[in-house]
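[step 3/7] inverse_fold.run input=structure_tokens len=518
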């Protein structure tokens, strides 16, 4: 009954915001055109399609808002105007009662928040679709932030996800254009993100990993501050970390008033991103202004502060190498190398003609070089490369789409701080240095050290392994004999099958002749 009522509600919202027109207009079929004329009744929607979709998702509630936020990251699949509107979706969810938060903490940690903490603020400081945050103070006087999962979320999410799967199957049957959007895969990706965010232990571990990465040396510590996790006060529904104080990165006037060097801050943001991606292969993938602050404390003035670690991205060594070489080849306008990288990666079919792919990449990338360097978007370049790759039947990896979305966020924040920010000038030396460290003498020595332990175990065994291999009886002749016998058996079976088919054909012919003769 709930599913039926929910489905009716969704259909009402669809017709209210004329999303039927959005679906029908994207289907290239005569019947779709006729249905579209009937649905419009001579009137066209007043608002753009992206705005209507955003308003519809907001009216359907927090789960659909979250779905729109995830969908906005798939700019390789959806039109740009829709992606930009979906990126504007915000969680506008009233907080749940403080008594419920206290009961959740009691159940998860075995004691009430007033026993666990010296001080606990009953009123939440922030509330979103998945959780809300309360400030508290440990008994040692340390200030912390306690994130509490919204109760009953799993049941609500699973019910809405069931409906989304049904709608996704329906969309796929509308035609090839709808199938190109891969609705079932997008819903499955959304399911994974939501389940990850519903486990606050996972978020706490992401936070801990990122903090460890940026406390390796003094140089990194000056770039980014990550709160420390207090594991004794964490569970799957509760996440306790240091309270971080600062200014949201998009509040430019407050940053200026605090004497923060905005140009240096913009460059540091780009450096943080490339450090996470190419050095660590582990990056904060939700770097919008609401999750990034800047410290205004005298001892850490101008250092970034990261918050909300529900969505992170991971890259393999293969991914990092592919991205770095693609960027460098693009910087040098070496489009043949970009095409070769796509083929070598195995992301395009091996029969793809290198010069054809090179021409497509050139058509995408060359127009960017007519612009001032400060206006060129690396995120848009990566997006266009993905779009070009799709023409050659490439399945873009989800982690690279997540990275492209994060890069767009970083670029947006950087240029808000410094409109003249030249990402090329900032990124190119870093990428060249990284490539040198990978393929130069220092990279070779580093990898040799990494493999030394494994080689130390294997090398003493080599003489014994070689001796055993040389003394092993030669089974090649016996194997050849077995293969020969198997081939003869197969040939005999084929001959027998041919005879049986011939007999059966004769029998069928005789039966038909007898019937006709009667």
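[step 3/7] decode complete -> sequence:
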């Amino acid at each position: 009954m709930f599913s039926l009522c929910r489905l009716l509600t969704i259909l009402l919202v669809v017709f209210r915001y004329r999303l039927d027109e959005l679906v029908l207009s994207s289907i290239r079929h005569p019947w779709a055109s006729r249905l579209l004329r009937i649905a419009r009744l001579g009137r066209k929607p007043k608002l753009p399609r992206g705005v209507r979709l955003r308003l519809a998702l907001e009216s359907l509630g927090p789960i659909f808002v979250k779905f729109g936020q995830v969908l906005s990251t798939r700019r390789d699949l959806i039109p740009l105007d829709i992606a930009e509107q979906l990126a504007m979706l915000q969680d506008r969810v009233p907080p749940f009662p403080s008594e419920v938060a206290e009961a959740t903490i009691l159940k998860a940690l075995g004691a009430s928040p007033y026993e666990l903490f010296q001080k606990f603020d009953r009123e939440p400081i922030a509330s979103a679709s998945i959780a809300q945050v309360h400030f508290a103070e440990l008994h040692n006087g340390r200030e912390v932030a306690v994130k509490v999962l919204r109760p009953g979320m799993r049941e609500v999410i699973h019910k809405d996800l069931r409906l989304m799967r049904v709608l996704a199957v329906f969309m796929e049957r509308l035609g090839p254009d709808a199938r190109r959007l891969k609705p079932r895969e997008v819903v499955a990706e959304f399911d994974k993100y939501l389940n990850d965010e519903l486990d606050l232990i996972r978020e706490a571990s992401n936070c801990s990993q990122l903090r460890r990465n940026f406390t390796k040396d003094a140089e990194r510590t000056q770039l980014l501050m990550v709160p420390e996790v207090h594991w004794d006060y964490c569970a799957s529904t509760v996440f306790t970390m240091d309270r971080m104080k600062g200014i949201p990165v998009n509040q430019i006037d407050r940053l200026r008033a605090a004497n923060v060097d905005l140009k240096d801050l913009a460059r540091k943001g780009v450096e943080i991103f490339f450090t996470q991606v190419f050095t660590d292969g582990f990056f904060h993938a939700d770097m919008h202004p609401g999750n990034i602050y800047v410290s205004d404390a005298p001892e850490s003035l101008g250092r970034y502060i990261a918050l909300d670690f529900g969505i992170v991205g991971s890259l393999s060594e293969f991914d990092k190498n592919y991205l770095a070489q693609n960027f460098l080849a693009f910087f040098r306008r070496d489009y043949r190398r970009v095409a070769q990288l796509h083929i070598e990666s195995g992301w395009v079919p091996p029969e793809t003609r290198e010069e054809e792919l090179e021409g497509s990449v050139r058509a995408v990338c060359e127009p960017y070089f007519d612009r001032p360097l400060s206006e060129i978007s690396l995120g848009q370049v990566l997006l266009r490369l993905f779009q070009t790759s799709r023409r050659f039947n490439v399945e873009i990896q989800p982690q690279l789409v997540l990275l492209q979305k994060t890069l767009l966020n970083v670029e947006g924040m950087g240029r808000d701080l410094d409109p003249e920010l030249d990402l090329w000038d900032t990124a190119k030396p870093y990428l060249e240095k990284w490539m040198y460290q990978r393929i130069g003498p220092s990279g070779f020595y580093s990898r040799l050290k990494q493999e030394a332990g494994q080689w130390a175990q294997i090398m003493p065994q080599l003489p014994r392994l070689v001796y055993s291999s040389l003394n092993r009886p030669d089974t090649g002749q016996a194997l050849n004999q077995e293969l020969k016998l198997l081939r003869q058996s197969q040939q005999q079976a084929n001959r027998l099958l041919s005879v049986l088919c011939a007999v059966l054909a004769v029998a069928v012919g005789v039966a038909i002749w007898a019937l006709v003769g009667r």
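[step 4/7] annotate
The longest strand covers residues 131-137.
The CA atoms of residues 360 and 391 lie 9 Å apart.
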